[in-house]
Design a protein that fits this description.
Layout lengths: L18 H26 L4 H29 L5 H15 L3 H33 L6 E5 L2 E5 L9 E4 L9 E5 L2 E4 L1 H4 L5 E3 L4 E2 L4 E2 L4 E5 L7 H14 L3 H28 L2 H10 L3 H20 L2 E3 L3 H5 L5 E5 H5 L5 E7 L5 H12 L5 H12 L9 E5 L3 E6 L2 E6 L1 H8 L13 E6 L4 E8 L6 H10 L4 E5 L4 H11 L3 E3 L4 H13 L4 E5 L5 H6 L2 E5 L5 H5 L3 E3 L6 H35 L5 H8 L1 H11 L6
Parallel strand pairs: 11-18, 11-20, 18-19, 20-21, 21-22
Antiparallel strand pairs: 1-2, 1-3, 3-9, 4-7, 4-9, 5-6, 5-8, 10-22, 12-17, 13-14, 14-15, 15-16, 16-17
Helix pairs in contact: 1-2, 1-4, 2-3, 2-4, 3-4, 3-8, 4-9, 4-21, 4-22, 6-9, 7-8, 7-9, 8-20, 8-21, 9-20, 9-22, 12-13, 20-22
Amino acid sequence: MTNDRQAPATGQHSVGLNGIIKLKLANSIFAAVFLITGIVLEMLLPEQKQTARLIVAIAAMAVSLPVFINGFKGLFTREPCFMTEQLVSLAILAAMSEGEFAVATIIPIIMVFGHLLEEKSIMGIEEAIESMRRLHSRQARLLADGRETLVEPGGLKPDDLIVCYPGETIAADGVISEGETMINQAPITGESVPVEAFAGVGVFAGTINLSGKICIKVTKAASDTLFNKILHLLKEAEASKAPIVKIIEKYLGLYFPFVIMVAALTLFLTSDISRAVAILVISCPCALILASPSAMIAALVSAARHGIMIKNTAFLELLAEIDTVIFDKTGTVTLGKLEVEKVVTLPGSDNQEMLRYAAMCASGSIHPVSAALIAYAHTNGIRFPIPAVQKELHGRGVSAEIDGKRFYLGKPGWIAEEAGITAPADVAGENGISVWVASETAFLGEVIFSDRPRPEMRQAIDQLRSLGVKNVILLTGDRSQIGNAIGKALGVDATVCECLPQDKLNYVNNRKACGERVMFVGDGINDALALKASDVGIAMARGGTDIAIQNSDITLNTDNLLNLARMFDLSEKTRGIINQNILIGTGFSLLMMVLASIGLISPVIGAVAHNLGPVFVVLNSARMLKEN
């Protein structure tokens, strides 16, 4: 019976009663009809007493058979979810041995209806998950040969063109190729303020177009969209086990012999088998088994609403032990949305034309420099085509091809090597961040950027300190002048500059070797090793790379790093809810066992009372779903 409630762990959220509980419900109704028929027949026709009792016995066997089967399975699988069936099986057999077939029928019937109530409570959690699925567009407007055709989003391929009108849900991840609009990204990122989107800006499936018609060039297949990755992560996290679940299961192995001993001792001392039966029924550990999973599922859904995707429930517990937080700089603690500070055009080059080529190369790139260039071009009314061919070499630059001509955006050394042209002297300031623009034959100019810390970053660090984090470290591949300036502005404990990916990995491992629990927050490919090595790795999905996201334990779909504190707070609340659930589960069962042993609770009343504990546990966990 308890295994009926394991459905949420499979990731199948049909938001309805699962097939097994429906079958047991039908079986219980059948048994109840036979039970009532037998009782009425014996009352009206006493001479048919044997026939009436046979009918009741048939009812008892019909409703008990599924319990016996699952109890028998539990002898071989040793899974805690079968412990309820084993205890109830013993109670039913004890009742049958005394000729109490009515009691043997009523007990499993009541428990099935109790589990139905628990299932309905759990479905409140499942409904919250299912609501995420309903956010996805059911149809997409495919644009081909100037005609719009309604198609299934799952059939879209990279490079397809789709159209999205105001009020419609965007059907695929892609880059806007034409049009301007405001987009509500709250369903994916948790951000309540709509963002401006225009040509060259990336958009996500599941977000909502608010104000203008846009054409979108699809960049990812349906299975690879951020929306589907969120659902996949939620499924994985649901199915995972936190350390506290394993501890509960370990002690449940001792619980079964303890209950048998108490029931046997009660029978020996009182010679009242009904008390022993009541103990077996009331001691079923359903509430204890649900204590952690129900709280974890509620926490996962609550986190997802705020753009926090947790891959494994174990990390919810690990967060409470973190004492050192290490941040990557660019795109993590900084805005990741660089601002163009200065444009330097070389002699013989046109400023507007150079910026047009730069924006053309930047379109579709996820690098912060590219995003800044596209925003700057849009603000200054510079229109540019989406390139047919684009190639990005992370950490070096981007090349793009239009009408057979190739243009470059990136580091001067790389451009010189790729295009076979001579690199000019670097005219960026000592603390500047810059990229160069070039054609196939010559360098055209340089764009210089400024990178500022996120406005909420100082507050986020202060919140982490108030939650028990002792060390806050900043790692960056930038020169010391840039890195130290950012570190000083944020008030971190230490700043380590000019870090290569291996250096970040070694730094994380060294802190762990000192006995510290380390959380690393990053967004780039060069952060992947550190994210994987840390106790808890946090990736920034907005502007982050797929490799960083894949190697992280938790993904933030929003740029707001105040969500880091929210994660710690959620971890504490989840642990608190689990502890409350364990107290409810164990305390309720022990109290009922005492009352049953002294004869104050009959087996039938015990079957009714048994179902109250799990319902209380599920409702207690569901409180987390109501929190903002």
